[in-house]
Amino acid sequence: MGDGSILPVPLLLTGVAVLAVLAGGWWIRERRLGAQRRAMRALHALSEDIISASSPAEIAEILAARLPEATRATSLNLYLYNRRSKALERVPTAADPEPMAAPVDSPPDGLASAAVVCFRNRTQLNIPDVRRSPLVKVGPKMSLPRAALFVPLMAQHEVVGVLEVHNDRKLGYFKPEEQAAVHHLANQAAASLKLQEQQAMREHMFRSDKLAATGQLISGVASDLRAPLDSIVQLAESLAASAGESDPEGDLHRLTAEANRASEIVWRLVSFARQDQSAPQRVNLNGLVAGLVRFREPEWHVLGLRAQSQVSPGTAEVAGVESQIEQVCLNLLVYAEQRAAASGPKILTVKTSVLAGRALVEIDYSPPEGPDAEPDPFADLTLAGTGGPGLEVCLGIVRNHGGDARLRRRSGLSGFEIELPLASAPAEPVRSIGTTGQPVRSLTLMLVEPDMPAQRGLVTSLGSKGHRVVPSAAEAAGDIVQRLRFDAVLWAVRSGRSGWSEFHDRYRASIPAFVLIADRYDQELAQGLAPRGGFLLSRPIQDKKLTEILREIAARAPQD
Questions:
Q1: Which of 137, 270, 416, 482 is the most buried (most CB within 10 A)?
Q2: How many domains does the chain have?
Q3: Is 558 helix (H, G, I), strand (E, B) or coil?
Q4: pTM score over 0.70
């Protein structure tokens, strides 16, 4: 101690204590940050699952099972507003399957009264002590949680319901960060519900069009069905009258043929009218068209058409809903028959082929004579007299499958040309391959494309590659990118519309990759985007180039 080379014991103990405090503080901080990171990851994963949910019940089940990972919630209720009954209706779950409705004009006792207040005022309510809150009507012997949080489900400035979250154990919840998390999830649920509603409306319109088409088609082929049935009856009477007098073998062959013809007509009508399968599958387009040709051949004979079938015997598989593709082909085929029957030559040709990765169906016919005898159904958006839906629906079906349909005129003939992309070779679903060849997770992409046909085509193309796509309007892109984690944003620039530059500058820190889609390729712009992880695509989009960009983005994306 005398020479001062050794620190005094009190000073040494003080230093050790300070180091212990610092180490403890660092450990506590790291533990808290780790918990926050885990909660954020759970929140992002929950948001993605909600957006991709297919029904309100699925959203409620996802929230009930996963919300405690991101917050201190112990239970919840999801209410949806019913416009007809003017009431908030609780979505049943496995834990609480009993339905319940809270009329907005006269709410019942319990937490439902606070849910109605939240819905009416369009504002979030945090109730730290449920039994002492004036917003909750407490009935006798009523079981209530300790704390509750009510968040309105806002979608496009409209309240579609209320998310009610409980803490059954402690008073004083929920903390500000938990309120923000629940508010974020409520917005995701509202957006998902709005998408489900729009999808349901589209399916309802399609079913209505198809029902009307089925009725008219059945009426149109009634004579076809009546003819083979009359033949069957006559042949049966003839065989009964001549029993034992002659060899009935020829009549039996005719009887079998007519019965098969009647069966084919009935089967085709039932096939056309059956309920669609929503999940896409691999469809042999050549086989589908060949079946339609066999179905319509008797009608061609009745109409006196000079019909020629050039359907390829090979396989040309496309990805889609078989009944929808069949409806489009049948509708255009019937229209072509009627136009050919009204012409002098009465020519009808059906041909299929494969060209540059696309399956083609060509339906050519001789049009009626006269300058006004052949209207342009694509311009009129109708296919009058076919018994099917309008051209707008047919085009929508084809383009939703990533293809296109056109009217063409050449060498005195008119015709339709339908093209659909060939289905890719079977691969692992929801997986993509990076530039290194190693499998990585599928990508979550936001698509800003104001042109709806182009948007549907891109969504179909990207979805077929196993990626999740969230379409968005330019005005809502900033809000969505803050509430949901994306691996990349695809932004299509259209004439008269801008805003991508401001969006890119503002949110590039939170977006790993940005893909700009323009009318032409600008080398200077591409070089400016590259250092910031951006890409430039020019229209028409080449599938090979798009795949290369997605692979590079997937290679950069961190593993979950």
A1: 416
A2: 3
A3: coil
A4: no
